Every structure is written in C-alpha cells, then in structure tokens.
Amino acid sequence: MQAGVKPRIGMIGTGAIGGFYGVMLARAGFDVHFLLRSEFNAVAEGGLQVDSAVHGALALNPVQAYRSAAEMPPCDWLLVGAKTTSNAELAPVIRQAAAPGAKVLLLQNGLDVEEALRPLLPDSLHLLGGLCLICVHRAGPGVITHQALGAVNIGYHIGPCGDQAERMLIVEEAATLFRHAGIDAQAMADLQQARWQKLVWNVPYNGLSVLLGASTTPLMADAASRELIQALMREVVQGAQACGHHIAPGYADYLFAMTEKMPDYWPSMHHDHLHKRALELEAIYARPLAAAKAAGCALPKIEALYQALAFMDRHNR
Amino acid sequence: MQAGVKPRIGMIGTGAIGGFYGVMLARAGFDVHFLLRSEFNAVAEGGLQVDSAVHGALALNPVQAYRSAAEMPPCDWLLVGAKTTSNAELAPVIRQAAAPGAKVLLLQNGLDVEEALRPLLPDSLHLLGGLCLICVHRAGPGVITHQALGAVNIGYHIGPCGDQAERMLIVEEAATLFRHAGIDAQAMADLQQARWQKLVWNVPYNGLSVLLGASTTPLMADAASRELIQALMREVVQGAQACGHHIAPGYADYLFAMTEKMPDYWPSMHHDHLHKRALELEAIYARPLAAAKAAGCALPKIEALYQALAFMDRHNR
C-alpha cells in the first residue's frame, strides 16, 4: 500500500462474504465499489446492513453500487466474493474493473479455483486467494448476518511477481487491508497449503449440511456424525500430505473444537442447495479428490460423500 | 416333509414379505396361520390380497388370522417376516406357536440376525435363515404389491442337527415348501455366506434409498450414484472375503445388472424411514462392519453410509 494513499477496492459479487468484508473495509475508510446483480435496486436504495454478533449493527448507506463492471472506476484491488462455479465467466468483469497492475483476490473455498480464471486475465494482474473462516449468511436483500469469526488467510497464486519475497509483500499488503478494517488476516507462504487447510472444515461441514439437512449444532451433538466428520477431516489431512502440503498436527482437532463452540451455523452449501443453485462440488470435492488420486492417495469417505452430493445436486435443479 | 402330510406353517409378522409368501403357500394347499397386529381386523374381515406382476391378482379369504401366538395351533414351521429390530421380543411368540421340534425360518436381511433369538429358544427348535430376493411392498392393510422376483436362499443357523448332511435335509425341506408354492428356492450350505451375498444388494440400495431419497430407477440413471453403488458392492465383497466367505466373481455385477432391469423399486428401508420406524442398521450395516473390522478389513464407504444413516435415523424418530 502506498503511504497515505488508500487503494480503491472493487467487490465483485456482493453476497454474504462480499457484503461483510466490503462493509467492514468501507467503514474503515477505504473507497469500496460494489458490483451487484439481483440486489442492485435494494442496495442502491437501502444500502448494506451487517448485523454482526462481533461488531454490532453496521450500516453502509449510500453504497457505491454498480449494475455492471463497465460503470466501475478502475480498482487497485478486486475482491471476488462470487461462487467458484462462475469463475470463468468473471474474467471479462474483472478485466473491465481492474486498474493496470491490479491485484485480484478470490475469497473462495476449494482447490484450484484460480485455474479457470488465470489464463483469461492479463499477465500484468496479480492473482491471490483468500480463505475466510467466518460464519456469515445473507438474511435478505442487502442484509447480512455475521454470527462469528472472520479471519482471512491469504496466499499468492500467480502473476507478475517473480520471486517469493515480492509475492509475500503483495500478500502482506492484502492482509494489511483487512487488518485496517479490524479483521484478523494472515499472510500464507503457500496458497495451496492454505486451501487444503480450509478444506479440513469445508469438506465435512458443507457436504453434510446438504446430505443430512443439518446445521453444525445437531451435527456436533450426534455420535455418528461426529465420527464421520472426524474421519472426513482425517482424509483431507491425508490428501494434503499426499500432495506435499503439511497440515499441523492437531489442526483438525482445533477446527472440530472450534465448531463445537460456534453458534449454530448453516454452511453456504446448504443455502445453495435450498435455493437450487449449483453446489461448489468441483472446487471442494472433485479437485481435491483428483489431486490426491494423482498422488496415489484414495480418500474413500470423501469420494462417497461427493458421489452422494453429485446425485443430490443433479436432482435438485 | 413327511410323505403326504403337509406341515402346518405359522407366519410371524404379516407385512409385505410374510403376506406374500404366506398367501403363496396357503394357495398351494399348506395350512398357513397368520399372526397379525395392527392389521388384524382388516385381514380377518377382508382377507389378504397380493397384486403380483408375476402371478396375477391373488386373494386369500378367509385367512386363519390371530391376534396372539397363544391362540395359534402348534406349527411345524414358523416363518418370521417381522423386522430384525424386534428379534429378541419374538422369542416368547415363537415358543408359544412352535410344535415340538419345529423349524424356525427367519426371512430377514442382514448379518447375525439369528444371534439375538437363538439363546432364547428351546434347544429342540431348528433355526434357519432365508434371504428373499424380491420386490414387494405393502400397499395398504392386508394388501401387498409384488413387483418382481421372489427367490429365497435358505441356510441352517444352529439347532439340534449335529452334522451337515442332516442340516441340509432340513434346509432342502424348507426349499421344497417354497417350490411347492411356485417360488424359486435354493438350499445354501453356509447361511453366513448367503447373508453376505444378500448384503451386496442391501448395503447400497437400502441405505441410499434413505440417504438420497431415491428409488432404484433414479439411482441407476445417475453416473455418480452408479459409481457409489458399485463401490459399496465391492466393499461388501471385500468384507465377506475377509470373513472367509467367498462371493463368486461377477456376482455384484449380476445384481447391478438385475437391478437395472427391475421395475422401479423402493427398498424396505425407505418405507421404514418414511413411517418413522427404526431402520435395520444393526443387521445390515453395524454387524457386517464389525465382522470385517475384526478380520482386519476396513470398509470406509459403508462406514460413512452407516454413520450418515445413523444420524438420519436418530433425527427421524
């Protein structure tokens, strides 16, 4: 970040994630511009509202809201809160809204979510990934409920930075943006490692919320689902290790214990299923399974869960 | 079977299985007595009706129907069509209805279903198990729809027969009863082997009908569920082999292809779930998993399926 000059931030996709972090950044004094689709009218008129159990009731009104990227000013940072299922379609949007040399940060779960986008972006753009450990959901048009947590782990994917030191400067710059907004952020040396680490949570809870129609509290209260969650977590750790990414011993136990202390939470995949939207099965299940398999590692329970979810997803739409 | 003398048969539990085989046996001239609970009045008044795609519309009226085993005459054969979940409670019922030296045939799926019952029965009673490969369901009180198939594989569990030759005579006697009624029946040398063999079908289809809320036709039409079914079948075969039971190569493929040709079918576990009855998870999942584990064989996909079903079952009642 240039001293004294706050970068202009564009939020691509203003759902629960984009809305929460966008409002937090705007309230910290950043010049944040929001791209919206179905909720444009509601937000242009009524602003954005975050009901946060951590930060209180936050309102942003007026909002710099746009219907199309062509109307947005050139942004130094583009934060992408849209679903991974639409990444390839986002390339023209990002190209339109990006200032020269802009940094693009995908706030998305799953593995290899940058791959679809990278070849469609100019080489001069930096591409980063951010993993959000947060309990947040849309309560209505322009209204976001933030239940707990909020930390972001950020890593560099690929772009004009040649060496690791230069990359880490960009990653630290991203982490600093969030910290200025009162959000815990961590610069990660290895984005793939960060993505695998986040999968330890997403693989069990996202899928089981759909498969069993259950939020975290009942899932954590039943002996059978607890065993299944822990077995799925162990498989993610095995997959990560087979792919050369070290997950700290005890990390799965930490996430498990954290979930036990969380307020009752419905993961985003449940909301997608409920609203008959495509589930993020590629990023969260298919690609980790394929990567582990290529490394000679079978993940049978994750595979069974993926197959069951694929069936449900196809019959839901 | 003594020449010229048809044995008296008692049917314990007159649901879809008990009703179908009981009507078939009664219409073949056997003296069949039916124990009923909630459907006693309907059947005592209106008889039993089997709408069979194979045998046509069959009616049995009047029916020798009983509210309690104490009223039944002593039976030479007792066929048990009740759920495995109530086996321990069946012992007094069986003792009351059994003639001296009677043969008890459990028409039930799953592993070790005889174990709960055997210590509660007199040593003089023979205990056998029968695996029914049949598409049949209750359409209403006393009304049974038979969609397809019907063969029964029968084996000897334990009882007064000392040697294998003597046991096989009893098993052949049971098979002959069914054949007299126009039903394909097979005497199996090893009941445990027959039970594992039947699990190759029950483990995938029973569980997935509940987990995915889907009958056989949609399950067989989707690439992901087909793969999952085949993977679950492979694990059952592995479990059987680890426990020393040989499943013929190609047997799983045969069942898979057979299911593809069957009319659309909802397995019994789906009906149990729908009516908020206990699922037969012990017999069909927990015991096979435990047996395989004791033999050093992990069955991870079956275990994941079992854990998911255990969660659903507990939240359904």
Automatic annotation (TrEMBL), chains A, B:
Pathway where it operates: Cofactor biosynthesis; (R)-pantothenate biosynthesis; (R)-pantoate from 3-methyl-2-oxobutanoate: step 2/2
Domain of life of the organism encoding this protein: Bacteria
GO biological process assignments: pantothenate biosynthetic process
The entry's keywords: NADP, Oxidoreductase, Pantothenate biosynthesis
Record flagged with keyword tRNA processing: no
General function of this protein: Catalyzes the NADPH-dependent reduction of ketopantoate into pantoic acid.
This protein's name: 2-dehydropantoate 2-reductase
Organism: Pseudomonas chlororaphis
